[in-house]
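Changelog note: in this version the structure field was regenerated for every chain. One regenerated record is shown below for reference.
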Amino acid sequence: MSKCGWRSHWDKDYCCRVVAEAGSKFCIFHEPGEKDIERFKQAFYSQIREEGPADERNPQYDFRGYVFPTGLTVQGEEAELILPREISGALIMAESTIGGRADFWRAKVEGSAVFADAKIEGSAVFADATIEGSADFVDATIAGNADFMGVTIKSDTAFRAATIGGVAVFIGARIEGNAGFRYAKIEGGADFRDAKIERNAGFRDAKIQGNVDFTVATIEGNADFQYATIKGNASFGGTTIKGNADFREATIKGDASFGGATIEGDADFTVATIEGNAGFRYATIGGVANFLDATVKRNADFMGATIMWDAGFAGATIEGVADFRDAKIEGDTVFLATVIRRGADYRDAEIGGGR
């Protein structure tokens, strides 16, 4: 009997150990067509229990490329296919198709969770879960929400070029590495309220159809939203960014709110477009604030803000009012060719080296 002929695009050395189905070149796991769910379940649980000869079954939690006829859930929940809540080692779901939601609520994965290029036909739920390694969702497609509320991820989180059909929820999440969403497409919003990211948050070139909310979140590295498109509001009220905040050439269709935020590095909004208000009331920027050639379609509020180096507004257009009352800018401030349609208020401001 011949082995399954499925091959991985991600790992050229991968070979499935399971015997192919009669009349097919694929095993019951990799067969893309209709399959007997009961037989699939029996084979699935045998793999998890590590039953049978090792050369005729795949590693315990290696499900790469599998075509699941139903959703998955952890032990204790009702579903067609149930996984243990504690998974020893890595969970490999790369290139798999899950015919429902993937529910790992409160699960513990002792290695990495690898869903690269996976297709989940429902939501992906990792709320209150612990992943001891990285979470890899590069090029993954999630038809519903990505619910990672309260998750702890001990390494990087990668959603590069992923598609999320609903909302990405990372409220209270703890990510002990980078959070990478470059080129991601999120049909709902991205909610990172009270999240902590111990390295960089990367959303360069991402497209988010709803709001982005990092209220009172902490980013230990840089926040990179260069070239990103946010169709709703961008809320960073009370957020701490220990590196730079890079929004160069970003488009924000709603308000950009950084009230009370602390940015320890530079804040760069060069050539950015904000179609609502730009709010930096009582924010602190430890480096340079650049709004060169930026466009703010409504008001720009810098009341009580502190900028510890230079502030550049050359070529910027503010369609509403610019409020700098009680602001303090310790370096040079450049307003060359700046357009402020409805006037500016500088009462009690301390602005150095104005040009």
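Spot check on this record: The chain has two domains: 61-210, 211-355. Residues 61-210 form one domain.
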